[in-house]
Each structure stands twice: as structure tokens, then as C-alpha cells.
């Protein structure tokens, strides 16, 4: 999960959602503050964790 610094504040985005924001990321010059591998983090867009936990 990457923490993005955006004009509206920091937000976590998973790799799956990142392409959906590619245009915004470029236009608004989002940047990655840091990347964290933590299963308890949730993507602010899809609300899923970074790593799929098998049933
Ligand atoms: Zn996501």
C-alpha cells in the first residue's frame, strides 16, 4: 500500500486502484510519501487490504 500526498490530504491507495487515479496523480502531482506492507491498512478507494488473505 502506498501513502499518496494529494491536494486533499494523504490517502492510502492499493496498486489495483492506482491506475484509476493515474490522470489525477499526474495532473495534481501526487507523490508517494512512503510504501508500507501492512495487512491492516485499507485502501481509501476500494477499502480492501493490500494483501489478499486466503479463506
Ligand atoms: Zn484499492
The helix/strand order is EEHE
- Spell out which ligands are present: zinc ion
How many separate helices? 1
Order of strands side by side in the largest beta sheet? 2-1-3
What fraction of residues sit in β-strands? 25-35%
Outline type? globular
- Largest β-sheet summary: 3 strands, antiparallel
Q: What is the CA-CA span between the terminal residues?
A: 21 Å
Q: How many domains is the backbone divided into?
A: 1
Mean pLDDT across the residues is: 92
Fraction in helix: 10-25%
Return Rg in Å.
11 Å
Class per helix and strand makeup = alpha+beta
Count the E strands.
3
Poorly predicted parts: none
Give a written overview of the molecule.
The chain has 55 residues and is α+β, with helices and mostly antiparallel strands. Helices cover 11% and strands 27% of the residues. The protein is built from one helix and three strands. It has a three-stranded antiparallel sheet with strand order 2-1-3, with no helix packed on it. It is globular. The chain binds zinc ion. The site of zinc ion has 8 residues, from loops. Zinc ion is lined by residues 13-14, 16-17, 43, 45-46, 48.
Question: What would the keywords be for this entry?
Answer:
1 helix, 55 residues, 27% strand, globular
Give the SSE layout.
Blueprint: E1 2-6, E2 9-13, H1 22-27, E3 31-35
The structure holds zinc ion.
Zinc ion (ZN) is lined by residues 13-14, 16-17, 43, 45-46, 48.
Amino acid at each position: 500500500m502506498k501513502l499518496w500526498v494529494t491536494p486533499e490530504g494523504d490517502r492510502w491507495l492499493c496498486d489495483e486502484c492506482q491506475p484509476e487515479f493515474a490522470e489525477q496523480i499526474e495532473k495534481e502531482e501526487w507523490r508517494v510519501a512512503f510504501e508500507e506492507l501492512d495487512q491492516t491498512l485499507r485502501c481509501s478507494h476500494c477499502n480492501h487490504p493490500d494483501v489478499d488473505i486466503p479463506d
